[in-house]
């Protein structure tokens, strides 16, 4: 056979893979256990030697946490499944509409389903020889961005014929991102039936040690919070949520901030999570349900949880702009 009529040559197509963290398949202890086992054996997430961690994980964490977490997931589960999965699907569909038929858009989860390797392979099978992999974390973190990229690179490493690859850089301080967040938060604040005295900007926490080791996550969160605070008409305060384990995590802790406010005369608050591109158990249950309980029990009066950008017009316009920039030179007509 002459090289020019090689049977595998396909039409060139472009793929975009939106990536988020992942979620269990069902709000049941068994499914949550499978999800947590994959998540919590990622050395990017738990950075202690495996020989030390494995006995704790299997002896303690995976025996107790799945039941507790399943209870949290049950409270947020929807007809379309886990909120994170449902919103991720809608984001991919909306981006597909916006980018048109020059591009194939799909989404994948770092842990659980649909997995990164399978989703990348389906894009390749559809003829994509150029792919943008977009971890939807505004702030770079080893545990999230790098872990998602590790999985993308590992999937490519198993391919004989790899597509060309671009990855979406962190966008924590991109003007389009700050604009989208500011517009979305102002609109939601304006629609409340009370006037909050403070807006808490709650980011997912990380072990303090990762900051000392040079992870830019803490700095990225601080910058998003500062830029956003400069744009909003309400005083803001940064906080870090979802502490896990016994090590020291980034401070101030969201639950401590909420419990402290009423003592300082702050009895009306709103809370937003600008580090999450989609609402999930950490925003809906941890902030919206448990955070509210903590605040009211401490003497607070009014509490509102604001939504993430999700598949809102503000959020999708931002995502389209960021992805189009990565597609520059690949798309037939700019
Ligand atoms: C947005 C950035 C995130 C960082 C940074 C992050 C770090 C991190 N998380 C855990 C432990 C857990 N996280 C869990 C859920 C979860 N985490 C993120 C995002 C970040 N995590 C998201 C989007 C979600 C939501 C998933 C969903 O299904 O809705 C969970 C599971 C839920 C629970 O049991 O509380 C755990 C556990 C660690 C240890 C860590 C950094 C070291
Ligand atoms: Fe997390
Ligand atoms: Fe949590």
UniProtKB/TrEMBL annotation:
GO molecular function: lyase activity
Binding-site residues, Fe(2+): 204, 282
Summary of the function given for this chain in its UniProt record: Catalyzes the ferrous insertion into protoporphyrin IX.
Xref: InterPro entries: Ferrochelatase (IPR001015), Ferrochelatase_AS (IPR019772), Ferrochelatase_C (IPR033644), Ferrochelatase_N (IPR033659)
Pathway annotation: Porphyrin-containing compound metabolism; protoheme biosynthesis; protoheme from protoporphyrin-IX: step 1/1
Enzyme Commission no: 4.98.1.1
Originating species: Sphingomonas telluris
Similarity annotation: Belongs to the ferrochelatase family.
Stored Pfam families: Ferrochelatase
Record protein name field: Ferrochelatase
Catalysis performed (reactions): Fe-coproporphyrin III + 2 H(+) = coproporphyrin III + Fe(2+); heme b + 2 H(+) = protoporphyrin IX + Fe(2+)
Localisation: Cytoplasm
Keyword Iron-sulfur tagged: no
Annotated PANTHER family: FERROCHELATASE, FERROCHELATASE, MITOCHONDRIAL
Top-level taxon in the UniProt lineage: Bacteria
Keywords: Cytoplasm, Heme biosynthesis, Iron, Lyase, Metal-binding, Porphyrin biosynthesis
